């Protein structure tokens, strides 16, 4: 795999620290594909992450949202010791992290048929949404009148 030097971006960029850190982190991270997952776009501001967790109970899974990071962790409880002749279903502990954009909130998480489904919604505050500004026109006498939008 190629490695890229992001030092020139640091010298000429202001306010993009988080983006550059994410690029640098993904470059250095060793690729672990366990557990497999899908990320779906359900609508303009709705998303769903599906994580395949065969063999894990609901109480063995932890979902945490902190700042802009969603963390899914799983640890199998060693309640029953089994003697496997062949074990093809992995039950190893895992920690999978997802970076969330600003204003993306976790709405729900549920386990069904071996899939953990996490619903995400981007909710932009009203103050941050674009709004139409009425344009006034100069009227005789120095008063400004506004046209209805």
What does this 3D model show about the protein?
This protein is mainly β and 149 residues long. It folds into two domains: 1-31, no CATH class; 35-146, Immunoglobulin-like (Sandwich), CATH 2.60.40. 12% of the residues lie in helices and 36% in strands. It is built from two helices and nine strands; from the N terminus they run ααβββββββββ. The strands form three sheets. The protein has a four-stranded antiparallel β-sheet with strand order 1-2-7-6, with no helix packed on it. The model has no long low-confidence stretch (mean pLDDT 82).
Show the helix and strand layout:
Elements: H1 7-12, H2 17-28, E1 37-41, E2 46-52, E3 61-66, E4 69-74, E5 94-99, E6 104-112, E7 115-122, E8 136-138, E9 144-146
Antiparallel strand pairs: 1-2, 2-7, 3-4, 4-5, 6-7, 8-9
């Amino acid at each position: 795999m190629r490695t890229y030097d992001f030092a020139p971006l640091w010298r000429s960029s202001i306010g993009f620290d988080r983006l550059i850190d994410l690029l640098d982190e993904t470059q250095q991270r060793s690729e672990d594909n366990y557990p497999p997952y899908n990320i779906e776009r359900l609508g303009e501001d709705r998303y769903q992450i599906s994580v395949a967790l065969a063999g894990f109970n609901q109480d063995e899974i932890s979902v945490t949202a902190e700042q802009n990071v969603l963390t899914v962790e799983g640890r199998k409880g060693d309640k029953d010791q089994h003697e496997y002749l062949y074990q093809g279903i992995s039950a190893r502990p895992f920690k999978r992290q997802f970076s969330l954009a600003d204003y993306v909130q976790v709405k729900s998480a549920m386990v069904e048929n071996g899939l953990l489904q996490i619903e995400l919604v981007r909710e932009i505050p009203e103050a941050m949404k674009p709004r139409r500004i009425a344009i006034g026109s100069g009227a005789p006498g120095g008063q400004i009148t506004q046209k209805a939008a």
